[in-house]
Amino acid sequence: MEDLTIDNVADKVAKRPLPLFNPRDPDFIRDPYPTYHRLRRQSPLLWDPAGNYWLATSYDVCSEILRDRRFGRRYEAHIENIYRRGMMDQTAFRLMAMTMLMQEPPNHARLRGLVTEAFSARRVVLMRQRIRTLVGDLLDQLVPRGTMDVIRDFAHVLPVTVICDMLGVPAEDTRLFHETTISTRMLDPVPMNESELREANAMFEEQGAYFTNLFERRRRDPEDDLITALVQVGDGGGLTDDELLANVWLLFAAGHETTRNLIGNGLLALHRNPGQLARLQLDPSLIPSAVTELLRYDSPVQFVGRTALEDTDIAGTTIAEGQVVLCLVGAANRDPAKFGEPDLLDFGRSNNRPLSFGGGIHFCLGAQLTQIEGQEAFVGILSRLPGMRLHDADEPSWQPNFAIHGLKTLMASWDPA
Ligand code: HEM
């Protein structure tokens, strides 16, 4: 084994390629947009030698890659590449690999097809009234308190309740998830450390045990809900037990983690842009465009990864088979070639099509649902708490993640009526 001396350690550090940016840097996580502008000015497609991935920084290149079937998923290879061989035995990675999110056709279409109808525009529109009632009930409890942590007490609870409702999680169990967190660090390109990995495995094991138990209950006592429907598909041979668990878990996690951040990041942006807040208060018909603009301005998902399935020429560059591209949708959404004055929050934008929900075959299944949740959440807060003050709007604390971008806490107060 090589002796470690000051000289050869320094030599190794000097030879290590410099990263184009550091996805773990708290300043980057707090405000990634100056870094994105710098990278995009260099090129719409950049090789990051330290991360061992390409970075797609422009709207057009991100959009093209997301829709190009020469790019797809090689989840196992990707995980073994950033960690080591044998990592797929870890519960967290084993189950994540079986979600539709990480699958390729034809498995992807089979898994997605089982739940598409439940998330169709027609079905979701019917849920608006239920969501409005949930927002109203939640605010009835919160308004007299005069203070809340927006993230814990409102932005988390609302989407957890909505997705649990859709899945068929009993109301008394839903409360168990009001305090639950999801390990979204496992989506980042920088590997988790031992304790983060332990936490991710524990989360899958704990939530997996809950859902497995619920599947048994629904086998015995079927209900008119999504879990019963999926359990029956499984029992008919259409889904393995692990696929059932992985995809129900995906719906649960994707159904609340991101919507929570739409509400949290959105309220923060509104309070930092009082002109747009006043505009919305004066003209509530702007709510749908405001939600789209808030999704563009500070996207809850900052990048989605793809692997080249063959050597591919794109934007004048060859991406070799097996190489990974991070499509920086957060950067695409601030691309000046696509959005005039991209760093301005402007609810009057026309033809506003951010890439926050991705694109191609994995386009977000919950896009319509989340838009309705966001609209009802903002209408509820603006109308019931018009004088709400945010305490830490200057220096809020962010979750230390890159892919999923959201706040840890956001304290607010108001004068109780
Ligand atoms: C602000 C809220 C949300 C954002 C920003 C968001 C964003 C995204 C993005 C970017 C993808 C594509 C990932 C990729 O291509 O690698 C995705 C996929 C997905 N989303 Fe969402 N999402 C949100 C809310 C929801 C909700 C409420 C649900 C409801 C269950 C949901 C369920 C899913 C599912 C199941 C997929 C995987 C689809 C597939 O692989 O075919 N999402 N989401």
From TrEMBL:
<keyword id="KW-0408">Iron</keyword>
<dbReference type="InterPro" id="IPR001128">
    <property type="entry name" value="Cyt_P450"/>
</dbReference>
<protein>
    <submittedName>
        <fullName>Cytochrome P450</fullName>
    </submittedName>
</protein>
<comment type="similarity">
    <text>Belongs to the cytochrome P450 family.</text>
</comment>
<dbReference type="InterPro" id="IPR036396">
    <property type="entry name" value="Cyt_P450_sf"/>
</dbReference>
<keyword id="KW-0614">Plasmid</keyword>
<dbReference type="InterPro" id="IPR017972">
    <property type="entry name" value="Cyt_P450_CS"/>
</dbReference>
<dbReference type="InterPro" id="IPR002397">
    <property type="entry name" value="Cyt_P450_B"/>
</dbReference>
<keyword id="KW-0479">Metal-binding</keyword>
<keyword id="KW-0503">Monooxygenase</keyword>
<keyword id="KW-0560">Oxidoreductase</keyword>
<keyword id="KW-0349">Heme</keyword>
<dbReference type="Pfam" id="PF00067">
    <property type="entry name" value="p450"/>
</dbReference>
